[in-house]
DNA sequence: GACTGTCCCGCCCTCTGCTGGGAAGAC
DNA sequence: AGTCTTCCCAGCAGAGGGCGGGACAGTC
């Protein structure tokens, strides 16, 4: 008996015979088990909607003696395609670090060597209990890929291969397809076929142009955050944004406890360990770890018309916005606890008001002598003045025991009368040329 | 096979805001 | 002279925009 299997359907020799396709693991053969398949796809299953038919050669043999089984060998008629293709298991191992949707290898059956991927896909598709994914019968056993077309499936299976036959003659980098190689070579030559109609930008691939247009012109942001209003042009940006909600920090510093939400921040953070300062001020050649820091430096230090920030509550002008914030926090924030004036009984809840109030005491001669009308601004001056009333002279000369009310007076006395090296300052009047011990201008 | 759109990773940039050390002035 | 306060400044992290480019699947 000879059967052929149309893509997505089973053609059988007898109209009233149904078969269950299963794998004989020990031999690598595929069995069609006769007569158990009420829930199996029938020949009338209706999967003939393909434009391109792929044929398999199915050879039938009698099963074990006494059994009712018919053993079929299914082989791909497109032998030439298969011969160049490594076993898919190998491809799966190579692909283990590939993209997420490619990573999720299914934990299905172990296929013996020599069973063509198409056969596996078809058998998987017809396996008992397998939900019928309508019109996508070709399922990769190394990942979640499914396809309705054998051509797409065949092409997909090559992604599990390491074969990259198309090599760039400029940098020797290899690619799986001509298209990829061509795009790559365009990056060498600067060829940018996809030009933006609204600006001068041009790109190597159409995808880059589409993305550019979304960023710059259409502002279409298809990827929307389910938690906040954030929306992005790219899925990766939404993924990065989502980490600000989840707190996830996948990128761990190897030298400290810091972990970042994206690779760039980790790279930037590593400069704090290496001491690298890649940004140099073109004027004073000071180096900085971040470009933004340097930019602020240049603006504040080397630019005319430096922007200043006026405090909305007082006349203070501050160079940096962040410092204005500190100023507002320190001086203009309401404090529940009362702040008392150090000179009087007034109380305030805002530090700025307190400081302003205390300045009103600044020129006050708050210290008044209880013996005379003398008044002064500082307590230490009053202390000295009080001695004129009490007669107290606490500073005594160690050489002659003469006493003084002020330390400065004692010092002057000591230098003048007991210091052999003392040379008195002489002030000469420019008019009469007379000499004086202190500055005097003659009339 | 070629074209196209999508996805993903990576890189770099800007803007923003917080922090702490140091200088300078006030007290 | 010592202490306190304010401002200047660089360091550094958070968040997001924009682009480069490789990989891959759908379609013709």
Automatic annotation (TrEMBL):
Positions of region (Disordered): 77-110
Pfam families cross-referenced by the UniProt entry: zf-C2H2 (PF00096), zf-H2C2_5 (PF13909)
Keywords: Metal-binding, Repeat, Zinc, Zinc-finger
Residues that span the membrane, as ranges: none
Biased composition annotated in UniProt, kind: Basic and acidic residues: 82-103
Coiled coil: none
Residues covered by the C2H2-type domain: 138-165, 166-193, 194-222, 223-250, 251-278, 279-307, 309-337, 339-366, 367-394, 395-423
SUPFAM superfamilies hit by this protein: beta-beta-alpha zinc fingers (SSF57667)
InterPro entries per UniProt: Znf_C2H2_sf (IPR036236), Znf_C2H2_type (IPR013087)
PANTHER family, A to Z: ZINC FINGER PROTEIN, ZINC FINGER PROTEIN 672-RELATED
Protein name: C2H2-type domain-containing protein
């Amino acid at each position: 008996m000879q059967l052929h299997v149309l893509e997505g359907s089973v053609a059988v020799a007898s109209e009233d015979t149904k078969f269950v396709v299963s794998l004989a693991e020990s031999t690598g053969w595929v069995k069609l088990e006769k007569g158990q398949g009420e829930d199996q796809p029938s020949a009338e299953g209706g999967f003939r909607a393909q434009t391109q038919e792929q044929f398999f050669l199915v050879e039938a043999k009698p099963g074990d003696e006494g059994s009712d089984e018919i053993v079929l060998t299914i082989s791909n008629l497109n032998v030439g395609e298969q011969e160049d293709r490594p076993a898919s298991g190998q491809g799966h191992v190579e692909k283990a670090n590939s993209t997420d949707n490619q990573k999720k290898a299914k934990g299905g059956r172990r296929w013996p060597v020599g069973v063509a991927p198409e056969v596996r896909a078809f058998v998987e598709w017809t396996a008992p209990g397998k939900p019928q994914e309508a019109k996508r019968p070709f399922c990769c056993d190394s990942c979640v890929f499914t396809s309705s077309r054998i051509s797409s499936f065949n092409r997909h299976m090559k992604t599990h291969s390491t074969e990259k036959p198309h090599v760039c003659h400029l940098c020797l980098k290899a690619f799986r397809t001509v298209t990829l190689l061509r795009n790559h070579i365009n990056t060498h030559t600067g060829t940018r076929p996809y030009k933006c109609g609204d600006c001068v930008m041009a790109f190597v691939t159409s995808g880059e142009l589409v993305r550019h247009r979304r960023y710059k012109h259409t502002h279409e942001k298809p990827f929307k955050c389910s938690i906040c209003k954030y929306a992005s042009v790219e899925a990766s940006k939404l993924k990065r944004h989502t980490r600000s909600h989840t707190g996830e920090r996948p990128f761990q510093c190897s030298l400290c406890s810091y972990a970042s939400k994206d690779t760039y921040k980790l790279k930037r953070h590593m400069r704090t360990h290496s001491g690298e300062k890649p940004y140099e001020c073109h004027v004073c050649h000071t180096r900085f770890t971040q470009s933004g820091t340097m930019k602020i430096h240049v603006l504040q230090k080397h630019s005319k018309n430096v922007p200043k920030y006026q405090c909305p509550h007082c006349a203070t002008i501050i160079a940096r916005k962040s410092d204005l914030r500190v100023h507002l926090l320190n001086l203009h924030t309401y404090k529940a606890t009362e702040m008392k004036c150090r000179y009087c009984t007034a109380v305030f809840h805002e530090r700025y008001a307190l400081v302003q109030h205390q300045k009103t005491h600044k020129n006050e001669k708050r210290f008044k002598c209880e013996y005379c009308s003398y008044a002064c601004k500082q307590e230490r001056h009053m202390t000295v003045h009080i001695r004129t009333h009490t007669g107290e002279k606490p500073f005594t000369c160690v050489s002659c025991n003469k006493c003084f009310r002020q330390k400065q007076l004692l010092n002057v006395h000591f230098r003048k009368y007991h210091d052999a090296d003392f040379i008195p300052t002489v002030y000469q009047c420019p008019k009469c040329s007379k000499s004086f011990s202190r500055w005097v201008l003659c009339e």
